[in-house]
Amino acid sequence: MTTLNSELLIDSKILRENISYIKSKLENQTNFMSVIKSDAYGHNLELIIKDIDDISDGYGVVRIEEAIKIRKLSDKKILLMQGVYTDADYQLARENNLDIVVHNNDQFSLITKHNNFNNLWLKVNTGMNRLGLEIDEFENIYENFLKNINFTLMTHLSSSNDKKSKHNAKQFRLFEELVSKLHSNVSLSIANTGCIMNFPDKCFDWVRCGIGIYGGYLDDENLKTAMTLRSPIVNIRKIKAGEGVGYDARAVSKKEMKIASVYLGYADGLPVTIKDGTKVLINDELANVFGKVSMDLTTIDVTNLDCKVGDWCEFFSPRLSISNIAKSNDLISYFLMTSVKSRVKKIYKNIK
Ligand SMILES: *Cc1c(COP(=O)(O)O)cnc(C)c1O
């Protein structure tokens, strides 16, 4: 009998290789912040830290609970990207020596109330229109409170993956115009992964790199997908021409076929929208999804493959980039990585 467990294997050696490759794009003085929000994009925050701590200058997270967890594991800089909303948050952030993002006036009021301007990252809105102080709001704060304070000015790009997008040029221009009016000890940070890859001259003092570490940046083959999502074949059957496979009989055979069922479905985090023809890897050979993903199972066309029950079917892995499944299904790697559910067995391969 075969085990029914789907597995998520995480290879920390690949995380390190990806970081080294990304760092090769940076000037020496640029600091590397590993963004490990959302449980390190599904890679297990607590486990990855000890494998990347020596090559990270700091960490970026959104939730304060995650920041506190990291503080127990590392002495590096930790940026609390959600900032603080209450006195209790503020105290926790200071007790744990977190750097604090300020993205609106209410958050800055909390800072002035406690009258401590250390370790602040002021976020300005240059066109993302999601978070961040408007530029005039920031200028007001700067004039009144920050003229003699060392802090970091940050912004976030809306279109960093698209080198040609006019939004990038506009955001860079607004940011740099603002910077020219500030004192010279202000640290600067714009770059997420897409910006590092497409605009390496805009990396300034801190890059905030997430998806590239995990190998989910889709347009550079030097970055390898660090997680393997795989599931065993649990059934193989032959079908005749003209038969439907799976729900709604979405896939219909044109000829005699061999269909494998693997124990991975949307309840494991594989989107129900995955299309027929999406490539998977079985015994080092490519095969196609054939039929709608169900809650627990997915069906694969293995007509031309030599395979048996118990063989692994990989949906993405270092050998089959997550960009394959993302691009062919109009999905993003961020979503796929953070969608894998807890019932999938996670196996972490440490470097040592
Ligand atoms: C998530 C996040 C990043 C990292 O972005 P990637 O595209 O994953 O590199 C950087 N900065 C902020 C503010 C973020 O929220």
TrEMBL record:
GO terms for biological process: alanine metabolic process. Its cofactor is pyridoxal 5'-phosphate. The keyword Isomerase applies. Substrate binds at R130, M295. It holds the Pfam family Ala_racemase_N. This is Alanine racemase. It comes from SAR86 cluster bacterium SAR86A. PANTHER family: ALANINE RACEMASE (PTHR30511), ALANINE RACEMASE, CATABOLIC-RELATED (PTHR30511:SF0). Keywords: Isomerase, Pyridoxal phosphate. The keyword Protein biosynthesis does not apply. One of its GO terms (cellular component) is cytosol. InterPro entries: Ala_racemase, Ala_racemase/Decarboxylase_C, Ala_racemase_C, Ala_racemase_N, PLP-binding_barrel. It is an enzyme of class 5 (isomerase). The lineage of its organism: Bacteria, Pseudomonadati, Pseudomonadota, Gammaproteobacteria, SAR86 cluster. One of its GO terms (molecular function) is pyridoxal phosphate binding. It comes from the Bacteria. Residues 226-349 form the Alanine racemase C-terminal domain. SUPFAM superfamilies: Alanine racemase C-terminal domain-like (SSF50621), PLP-binding barrel (SSF51419). The modification N6-(pyridoxal phosphate)lysine is found at K37. Its EC number is 5.1.1.1.
